[in-house]
């Protein structure tokens, strides 16, 4: 009886964690888009708010012993913190200047770029099956972008920069966690304030300080509350990703990611009246098929690797 109660309680926690991740991951996209469309809030300043709220949240968490910070030298994570700035800023600029569908599909190009970086600079090898899954992913993104009636060159420049910097960041995060022997929360605890300091130094060069659209402009109370809420939701995204991976499995996280991908696309078309042509829908299905295939083959290879290790004498 005790075992059944424990199992039920554990399942409830997992379901709660998945629901928090679903709600926060989808909400942060829609809230940020709403902020850009209706309040014209400056992009880099919004990114800075996200970094500060994330650090404050982690500070509270380490005070109540949810995780233990590890002392790190600033110079060893400086480039990582800079790439973190670029990753979030360019991704937000892509969201600001593109439809949600184009923004979401452009993010799918992160996988091919990561494979290219790891193959070229880290001499990592990938199976032919994995490489072939990149064809429908890339083709789908090209189809959607070509037939997007709201296509704009600036938006695609930001999307491309976002993909490149995000890919570099994800590769470096994995390398740094291994090199410094830290988990993602310990790394983010130092990374977030350092990235905030970098942004504080460059924001005045790119965004006005006063007047309409300025950092200290005449913002309404609803605008400020929405911006702060966006920061809290962004923190929940980071926290729930870490919790899900630690308490479920890579399979659960990846499958759940595909569900969020579809919900976000549908929500963009419904909430912001983004146009959707037949060719764009074909591009979305093509990309989704590629992502599902990539996940299937990648997880199968990981399971095969574990089996080989288990069979060794």
Automatic annotation (TrEMBL):
<feature type="transmembrane region" description="Helical">
    <location>
        <begin position="41"/>
        <end position="61"/>
    </location>
</feature>
<dbReference type="Pfam" id="PF03151">
    <property type="entry name" value="TPT"/>
</dbReference>
<dbReference type="InterPro" id="IPR050186">
    <property type="entry name" value="TPT_transporter"/>
</dbReference>
<dbReference type="GO" id="GO:0016020">
    <property type="term" value="C:membrane"/>
</dbReference>
<feature type="transmembrane region" description="Helical">
    <location>
        <begin position="101"/>
        <end position="118"/>
    </location>
</feature>
<feature type="transmembrane region" description="Helical">
    <location>
        <begin position="153"/>
        <end position="175"/>
    </location>
</feature>
<feature type="transmembrane region" description="Helical">
    <location>
        <begin position="14"/>
        <end position="35"/>
    </location>
</feature>
<dbReference type="InterPro" id="IPR037185">
    <property type="entry name" value="EmrE-like"/>
</dbReference>
<keyword id="KW-0472">Membrane</keyword>
<keyword id="KW-1133">Transmembrane helix</keyword>
<feature type="domain" description="Sugar phosphate transporter">
    <location>
        <begin position="23"/>
        <end position="294"/>
    </location>
</feature>
<comment type="function">
    <text>Putative transporter.</text>
</comment>
<feature type="transmembrane region" description="Helical">
    <location>
        <begin position="221"/>
        <end position="245"/>
    </location>
</feature>
<feature type="transmembrane region" description="Helical">
    <location>
        <begin position="77"/>
        <end position="95"/>
    </location>
</feature>
<feature type="transmembrane region" description="Helical">
    <location>
        <begin position="252"/>
        <end position="272"/>
    </location>
</feature>
<keyword id="KW-0812">Transmembrane</keyword>
<dbReference type="InterPro" id="IPR004853">
    <property type="entry name" value="Sugar_P_trans_dom"/>
</dbReference>
<protein>
    <submittedName>
        <fullName>Solute carrier family 35 member E3</fullName>
    </submittedName>
</protein>
<comment type="similarity">
    <text>Belongs to the TPT transporter family. SLC35E subfamily.</text>
</comment>
<feature type="transmembrane region" description="Helical">
    <location>
        <begin position="187"/>
        <end position="209"/>
    </location>
</feature>
